[in-house]
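Handout, tutorial session.
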Amino acid sequence: MLFYGFSNNLSVSLHFCKQAALPSHADRNKALYSLNAIVRKNPNAINVIDQSCMATLNEIAETSILPNAGGIAKEILKNIDINKKI
């Protein structure tokens, strides 16, 4: 489930950003793990993560006490920050 092309990252990342905002814990987990894989494998993918998605990631990172939600959101934000510095 890894996506290598930039155009694929654009559409898939946007989909996962929307999915991460859904109320279902299962939806959020799938979206967060998928976004994390995309960001780790393709640093350019951070260019398609918009402010709305960043707000969702920040909210999950700050409010979730579960490592498989809040912990992954924090990891994504850390990877985004690292990739912006490259």
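The second record follows below. Compare its token runs with those of the first.
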Amino acid sequence: MLHYYLCNTHHRMIEELLPKYILDFTLFAYLLLNITSEFCRQ
């Protein structure tokens, strides 16, 4: 019972957190690319 609960909670947590992390990472990567291209253009 406890094992089942832990696995479900863990899985749900990953499903909730992963999209947020992916979104943050994409935004960060996008900003980094913009800053780098602006810096290199000068």
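Points raised in discussion: The helical segments are 2-41.
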